[in-house]
Design a protein that fits this description.
Blueprint (H helix, E strand, L loop, with lengths): L11 H10 L2 E6 L2 E5 L8 H16 L11 H4 L3
């Protein structure tokens, strides 16, 4: 018997959520994506990230981590 994990493949649900929050989305790997939120969120990027996490959890049932930074590398340090 095989039990499919929700982490087994990238989900279209994730991409739909991400595109609700940013026009530019780069899927980097099975469990990592980058969103360009430059100029979005009214400057309150912490609240924007919290709303993104909440929406992903609501739509997919999977908890996530959101890192925010001026570069991809610094954004990964959550």
């Amino acid at each position: 018997m095989s039990i499919a994990s929700p982490f087994a493949r990238p989900s279209p649900k994730f991409r739909r959520v991400y595109h609700q929050f940013a026009p530019e989305v780069e899927v980097y790997s099975i469990d990592e994506s980058f969103l360009d939120i430059t100029g979005l969120g009214g400057g309150d990027y912490v609240a924007y990230g919290q709303k993104l996490r909440q929406t992903v959890r609501t739509w997919t049932g999977i908890p996530t981590c959101v890192g925010i930074g001026p570069t991809k590398t610094l954004g990964q340090t959550c």
